[in-house]
Design a protein that fits this description.
By secondary structure, the protein is of the alpha+beta class. The chain is built from three helices and three strands. It folds into two domains: about 35 residues; about 45 residues. The chain has a three-stranded antiparallel beta sheet, with no helix packed on it.
Length: about 110
C-alpha cells in the first residue's frame, strides 16, 4: 500500500473515518484511506461519461443520463484532460487548418 500522492511506502495509522482506517504518509503528510468507498463509480461509467462528453453532451445532461452529479462528471473529464497533458507533442505547430463558422448574436428585425 503506497501513498496515492507521492507513491511512498512509509506511512502510519491516523485514525478511523467513516468506519475505514486512515493512514498518513510519513514523507509528504497526505492523509488517505485504502478501501474504495461503496459509492465510488466504476471506470466504465467514467469512460462512458468521457465518450458522451466527446460526442457533445454537456456535464448536466451526462449526469442526468448516468445518474451521477454533474460536478462528478466535470471532475472526471478534467482528470482525463490532465492525463493527456503528458501526451502533448513538443513539436511546434506551423500550419493550422480551420473551418468557417458563422454565428449571429443579436435580435433579428422582421420587415413587413
Amino acid at each position: 500500500m503506497n501513498c496515492p500522492k507521492c507513491n511512498s511506502s512509509s506511512h502510519k495509522k491516523n485514525g478511523i473515518v467513516g468506519g475505514r482506517q486512515r493512514y498518513k504518509c510519513s514523507d509528504c503528510g497526505y492523509n488517505y484511506t485504502v478501501e474504495l468507498k461503496s459509492t465510488a463509480f466504476s471506470a466504465s461509467v467514467k469512460r462512458q461519461a468521457l465518450q458522451l462528453y466527446l460526442e457533445g453532451l454537456g456535464f448536466r445532461s451526462i449526469g442526468r443520463f448516468l445518474g451521477v452529479s454533474h460536478v462528478s462528471v466535470q471532475k472526471w473529464i478534467k482528470k482525463f484532460g490532465q492525463g493527456l497533458e503528458d501526451l502533448k507533442s513538443e513539436n511546434e505547430i506551423s500550419v493550422v487548418e480551420m473551418d468557417e463558422m458563422h454565428t449571429y448574436i443579436g435580435i433579428k428585425k422582421w420587415h413587413c
